[in-house]
Amino acid sequence: MTCRACGHDRDLELHSIAALSPPSTVMVEVGYACRACRRTYLHPADVAAVAEILNRESHADDVVTFAGSYFHCGQLMQKTGSELRRLSAPIFTDRTTEDDLDVYLTTQVLHCPCGFQIELPE
Length: 122
Ligand SMILES: [Zn+2]
Ligand SMILES: [Zn+2]
Prior knowledge:
Elements: E1 12-19, E2 27-34, E3 39-46, H1 47-54, E4 63-66, E5 69-72, E6 75-76, E7 78-89, E8 101-111, E9 117-121
Antiparallel strand pairs: 1-2, 2-3, 4-5, 5-6, 7-8, 8-9
The structure holds zinc ion (2 copies).
């Protein structure tokens, strides 16, 4: 990803990331602007190139989130499912379990092609 007017990428600012149709794990549609040239671009781009721009302000092995998409180690993470988690906490430690406080939490499971996986609250 480079600005076609000035030919470099140091002034690029990401505006949007959207899945392509049909969905791809290696390409996304990205919208960005070059702050120096005041030009905007919108086109399919390599996920790794997008992640490289996103990763400038963080470590490469961090999960980076942008516009609802999650990236890990330069790859786009895929949502692989939802889990309903039941968290149970006794209210009284000297009574039976009838009064247990049940908390249900829906989480989404995100998977990176490298095998890394995280669960986030919906
Ligand atoms: Zn430019
Ligand atoms: Zn990864």
